[in-house]
Please model this.
Amino acid sequence: MNIAIVGGGAAGFFLAIRVKELLPSARVIVFERSGGVLSKVRISGGGRCNLTHSFAHVSDLSQVYPRGARLLKRLFRSFDHRAAYAWFEAHGVPLVTQEDGCVFPRSQSSESVIFCLTHHARMLGVEVCTGVKVKEVFRSGNGFRLDTLSADCPAASETFDAVALTTGGAPRGEGHDFLARLGHEIEPPCPSLFTFNIDHKPLTALTGIVAEKAQTAFAGTKFRTDGALLITHWGVSGPAVLKLSAHAARYLCEHNYRAPLLISWSGTNNAENVAAELAALQRSAGSRLVGNVRPEYLQTRLWHYLLSRAELSPEKRWSEVGRKSLNRLANVLTADTYAMVGRGTYKDEFVTCGGVSLSSVDASTLESRSVPGLFFAGEILDIDGVTGGFNLTAAWTTAHTAAEGIARRLSAPNDGR
Model:
């Protein structure tokens, strides 16, 4: 048996290892278009590799998976974040869980994860061919052939009994045309998990300041997320922004990444409650200066900036602040509005919304409904999550599912397809 896995990323390697464990006598070959493998794993989590999450505070998968939550809920019954945690620890990667639920190698280096995957693949006899761009997969008799741009890998010209596509996201739809011709529905791809560009110099002058208790939303929509917010020299970043970009990925794409961004620096959109808190602060502050007494969740420089947004002087005494000024300040703390004028772009770090529609694959095996023997795993599917290890969790789960599906298909009696 020959099995081709197109894509040498997290999903590709995990799938290769699992299918080789299930079918030890099969020849499993991973084809990667670049000169190296697992490049996104290497830069994940700032080089530390946030390889899964505890899910401790996730009550509904749709909170962390804007697309694919329903399918993952089903697949998690067989292989979830706990199984991924146990798998890596059993394969020589001790893990640690942070307070925020993010799981990292104890070494705090992605190289531990890369070594684990490449070492076990090699020990099992998985072959790896780099520098091979697969343009198309097509039927050849009862098997598959690959149309490639490389002549340096003789294995690429062989016939395969099963093929798994794990090529990751494609923000420009690259590589999806032949899949559409084979009968797969393609959800239009667009970027997810990115920072927001804001052209407002007084804000960006606060570069490096973090608002730990923030909430972000887009005016006129139901998109709203919370978390820490980081002010950058180009706009805003941090979990509150990245999560919002994931949930609103298609909305932002359709609006050319221009939208009215609402920032609640207080972490709530209830201006009345915040006004009441400010009134209590006013009573306790007595005759002290407004600039010297602030809510504990705001840094001094950010507080002074927000006072200017509310047209309040930091030299004014709290006892001199009237009700209208308090309400104006409460509105700034709960619905500070900025014009988003674009998104941050990082060539090597992105997640893609869209891809092969989940309606085009079998929900139990991730096998193509239109092309038996063709499987999918990872980000090529219309599955993506927010930041925090959720996307790699989906990669491990879908790869495990596809590997089991391949093993079942190739182990079953020939059904004539």
